[in-house]
Amino acid sequence: MKLKEIKHLLFKKLWRFPLAIASITSVFLFAACFSLGTDIVSSSYNFNSFFPIFNTQIVSNQTAEENTRFPPPPPRPTLPRFAYLVSGSKGELNKLWRTTRALYHPWNYYVLHLDLESPLAERMELASRVENDPVFAAVGNVYVIPKANMVTYSGPTMVSNTLHACAILLKRFKDWDWFIYLSASDYPIVTQDGSL
Hints:
GO molecular function, one term: glucuronosyltransferase activity
InterPro entries: GLCAT14A/B/C, Glyco_trans_14
Helix content: 55-70%
Shape: elongated
Strand order of the largest sheet: 3-2-1-4
Keywords: Glycoprotein, Glycosyltransferase, Membrane, Transferase
Subcellular location: Membrane
Distance between the termini: 75 Å
Strand content: 5-15%
Membrane topology: Single-pass type II membrane protein
Radius of gyration: 33 Å
């Protein structure tokens, strides 16, 4: 064999040894971290007794932490807040109303919209129903879009209408977690309390 071939074979096999050593060392360190557990705290105390510089820094940090006790943060609510856009078209006033009543939860927010194809009388009736409903009026979490938008359900107007509803929700109610778009015919099988 030529010298170049011997060097090439030697370099080809040499990478295996450092890889094996590094792997064994990593496994050993990984196992040592889990087996030590709380012994690390006591060993750090022994380490600091040999080096008083580190010991004074730890003592000063402990006293500073003891002096500034912060109250625990308030617990977050377990239920998420949903923001709904419930939209309908001509002749779907009763479907939209029924879907909204079935979905309603005082914790959530609702934007209702009847598109431009629905007659003005239906849009006024929807606004009147929301205004005269005692629960909706007391909680104040249902909003009817007063100006109807043209919505074609396969075009950019659908996206525009959804973004318009999101803008209303972000302006009026800022503390919701999820946005859900529904049409008037999306009648739920179970309520929010039933599904949670």
